[in-house]
Amino acid sequence: MRADVHHVADGTYLVHGSNTNWVILTEGDAVTLVDTGYPGDREQLLASLAEVGSSPEAVAAVLITHAHNDHLGNAEYLRAAYGMPVHLHEAEVPHARREFLHQVSIGTVLKNGWRPGVLPWAVHALRSGGTADVPVTAPQAFPAAGALDLPGRPVPVHTPGHTDGHCAYHLPGTGVLISGDALVSGHPTSRVEGPQLLPDMFHHERPRALASLDVLAELEGELLLPGHGPVHRGPVRDAALRARERAL
Question: One Pfam match, by short name (predicted)?
């Protein structure tokens, strides 16, 4: 299956999987992979690495924004098959092990089934492994504060609310923000286009998700790579503030 890969900046690729995105950062022969899609996106994930001239063997590390199945879905497969470390914020490590689950329940989805797009999204999520058991056996917290010694030199930015340990990744050198689900530009269950929070049912603690938009608004950059939706070009600060206005 051909992957929908977009070269958005030097050594930076945004990949659209099935209703979710991941990011590939390249430096020479090495790669950083940010998020891994649904379990059902594995073929597309591997194809995306090939399309940028790489392979799973070249992945130095997998970085996870948060441990929902549409972002974590292939992390344990990659770790077990190829031996690369899987890094998350320390607050998200037990979530990745599935010691608990901060994820929208089937009951909540059904209660919101009358909303446009929710039922088709739910059917797709189920078919793609959205409720599959995919814990990461040995997730690791970031080894140090600040920029990580990986391709792209991503800087983790703790943005809790969607989950306790949700983390965005800032690339100051290229003006890129990989925002995960803290700030998106679209979603199958949203009728809004452009910078926004996900619908309320998806957030573990919505007030903290709102507060995290203020954190993102302090970051310098002109390129937003969200966990859902297309690339957004323009000041990250403006995108974060626009999402906050829409959410109030």
Answer: Lactamase_B
User: In terms of pTM, does the model score above 0.85?
Assistant: yes
Structural domain of 55 = 4-246
User: Total structural domains in the chain?
Assistant: 1
Residue length, the chain? 248
Helix (H/G/I), strand (E/B), else coil: 129? coil
Distances (CA, A) of 5 to 8, 52, 166, 197: 9, 8, 24, 24
- CATH code of the domain containing 20: 3.60.15.10
Q: In whole angstroms, what is the distance from residue 239 CA to residue 200 CA?
A: 18
Handedness of CA 175, 178, 184, 187 (dihedral sign): positive
CA dist., res. 115 & res. 191, Å (int): 10
Task: Please state, as a whole number, how many other Cβ atoms lie within 10 Å of the Cβ of residue 190.
Answer: 19
Tens place of pLDDT per residue across the chain (248 aa): 677 999 999 999 999 999 999 999 999 999 999 999 999 999 999 999 999 999 999 999 999 999 999 999 999 999 999 999 999 999 999 999 999 998 888 888 888 888 889 989 999 999 999 999 999 999 999 998 899 999 999 999 999 999 999 999 999 999 999 999 999 999 999 999 999 999 999 999 999 999 999 999 999 999 999 999 999 999 999 999 999 999 98
